[in-house]
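As promised in the previous annual report, we have extended the structural survey to additional targets. Below is the entry for Phenylacetate degradation protein.
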Amino acid sequence: MHNMNEVELHHQYKDEIFQILKNEPYAQFLGIELKDMGEGMAVAELDVADHMVNTHGTVHGAIIFAIADFVFAVACNSYGKTAVGLSTTVNFMAPGKKGARLKATATEERRNHRTAWYNIKIESDGELIATMEALAYRKDQYFIQVNKNNI
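The corresponding structure token record, generated without further manual editing, is:
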């Protein structure tokens, strides 16, 4: 049997991977909805509730970071292999408003055996309000049950 590459693993186990990642406890607590996941990419949305704003009445930076970090996590774990964040840089460009719908999109720029790089954009009702650059460390183990003959 040939060795299955990560893209093949992603497609074979995509539904299982999606179900596991969409149920991340903190994302569930905040109300973040995973809308899409592909090879090294993810899209999620969140309705900004009254308790998610700062003193100025705009979206708290921690909420923006949380949805950005969530799509980063989904994107870098989308191959079923455990990946963890090493570093992130967030640029806050404009305020999000109470009652707005946030959308975060993560795109994989490059990956190798051990590391992967991502760009994330965060929009508030369609307006770009923040970006994140993120670096992940890729471990050897899988968080799904993979047929060991395939890898």
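The first helix runs from residue 6 to 22. The chain has one domain: 6-142. These points will be discussed at the next consortium meeting with the crystallography subgroup.
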